[in-house]
From TrEMBL:
Subcellular location per the Swiss-Prot or TrEMBL entry: Cell membrane
Alphabetically ordered keywords of this record: Cell membrane, Membrane, Transmembrane, Transmembrane helix, Transport
Stretches that traverse the bilayer: 43-62, 74-93, 99-118, 164-183, 189-210, 222-240
GO cellular component: plasma membrane
PANTHER family assigned to the protein according to its UniProt record, in alphabetical order: MEMBRANE TRANSPORTER PROTEIN, TRANSMEMBRANE PROTEIN YFCA
Protein name: Probable membrane transporter protein
Naturally occurring in which organism (per UniProt): Nocardioides luteus
Amino acid sequence: MGLSIGSFALIAVAVVLASALQASIGFGMGMLAAPVVALVDPGLLPGTLVMLAFVVTVMVVVTERQHIDLGGTGWALFGRVPGTIVGALLVAALPERGLALLLAGVVLVGVALNSLGWRPSPVRRNLVAAGAASGLLGTATSIGGPPMALVWQQKHGAVLRSSMSSFFLVGSMLSFLALAASGSVDQRTLLVTAALVPAPFAGWGLSLLLNKVMAPVRLRRTAIAVSIFGAVVLVVDQLLG
């Protein structure tokens, strides 16, 4: 696979924690894990995290399917399709350094918008726009959560987790197909992803504990702090490199 044991272990730990966050609040896989993967092996992005996010979302959708907002999810997916195509073209056109800096920028902007408390109403127009933005960003950087979190931030608990997960379940499949069609997923990416599959299962198990002992607000704030740190380290690394 071309990864040292230490590098693989670091990515695996990041994926476990990011999967736990994704399963607990409905998003965060890319925001938490992508900066770590970009520092260790940027060639694995965005394909590896897109595929691993699919594993997490399947588990959440299966266990909490009765809470899904089908109407809102449908309109968001309507916007996801064109956004996904543009995102795949962006990945094919950008060099690894440009992709890493774009990734860090998406993390910081997403954190800023969530922290400022901007609350767009979940009407059809906003759902379609958020779906398109999520498709573009999720396919290009594996971070598609912030747009949907903004438009669905009035939802809580199982409704938020299941609705976000159902959206990302279909969305991650679309992103993977678009990335594969553009030549952005190679054999090495598939091998590393296969080796990391146990990590999202462990993260989902960890989320069951977190949902019992940790308030969603505190979990979200912790994730934001870690995401900011990861993005800043990534920017510094790219600028110094």
